[in-house]
Structures are given as C-alpha cells and as structure tokens.
Amino acid sequence: LQSVKTKGKAPALPSPIFVAATGNYNRPSVDFPAGYDITVAVGALNSKFERTSFSNYGKSYDRFVMLPGGDPTPDTQGNPTESVGEGIDSNGKSVPCLGTSPATAYASGLLALYWADPRYKTKPPNEFIDDMLALCDIGLKPFYNSNEHGKGRLYFQ
C-alpha cells in the first residue's frame, strides 16, 4: 500500500464481506461467526437440494444461503454417499470432504466471481449482498423452508 501514490493518504480499502459456515450439528441455530448480522451464513445441501442432515439452520435474518456440502448417509461400505471433494488424513489415507465449511468455500468463490462482474463490482457491500440474495434459487421444493434454507441456493447465473 505504501507504494501507491495517494498524496500522503492511504488508499481506501473496500469494506469486507464476511462469509461463515452455519455449523455441522443439525441444530436450529447457527454457530458464530455466522450468527452475526454482518455475515452471510452458509448451510449445506446435498445433490437432491435437501438440507443435509448435519447442517445447522434457523438464522433469524435474511443473510442465510445454501450450497453443496455433501451427504453423510453411509453407502454399503460405510462411506458418505456424497462428498464435495477428497483430502488426505495424517495417515495418508484418502478421506471424503463434506460439511458446511466446503459449502462456505463455494459461497466465497461465487461471491468473488459475482463481485468481479462489472454489474456488481462498484456496489457497496450491503447492496451487493442484497443483489446476490435476490438471485438465490428457492426452487428447493418440496423441501424449501425459509427457516431451514434461508434465501435458498446461491448459484452462478
């Protein structure tokens, strides 16, 4: 920042957008920091657009969205039926990745993609978030419930 010529003033930094996971305990309340009013809370959906059995829900205001987080229901070998990726544990074994944390990573990436769009990049954060929430798909029926799904599924259009 010091290398930017600003006539003695530091350049104005954009206001941050906070995105946080709701939690993985199937509780009707979200964990913090997702519970703060300034945060976009992210819950997890499976590929059938159902709230996953582990995803916390019930955010009392409108900054709550859903993204892919996998499905922990065990298959015939005892593995989750659906994951959103794989990782390696400390023993070098491949393990499935699922939860509200990967859903939050998806949300952060989508928000960054949208904010890079000329239609959105000059908007203040609150207006930008309102625009993104208006794009959410509530076509999760027959599963949609505003308490469990917030504004619905955030996706790139």
Class by alpha and beta content: alpha/beta
Q: Count of helices?
A: 3
Following the backbone from N to C, one meets helices and strands in this order, namely EEEEEEEHHH
How does the overall form come out from the CA principal axes? globular
Overall radius of gyration: 18 Å
Average pLDDT confidence is 87
Strand content: 15-25%
Sheet with the most strands: spatial strand order: 1-2-3
Distance between the termini: 34 Å
Number of separate strands: 7
- Largest beta-sheet characterization: 3 strands, parallel
Helix content: 10-25%
* Poorly predicted sequence stretches spanning 5 or more consecutive residues: none
Overview of the molecule:
It contains three helices and seven strands. It is of the alpha/beta class and 157 residues long. The strands form three sheets. It has a three-stranded parallel beta sheet with strand order 1-2-3. A two-stranded antiparallel sheet has the order 4-5. A hairpin with a 5-residue loop joins β6 and β7 (94-97). The longest helix is centred in the last third of the chain and has 17 residues, at 100-116. The mean pLDDT is 87.
Summarize the structure.
The chain is an alpha/beta fold. Helix content is 20%, strand content 20%.
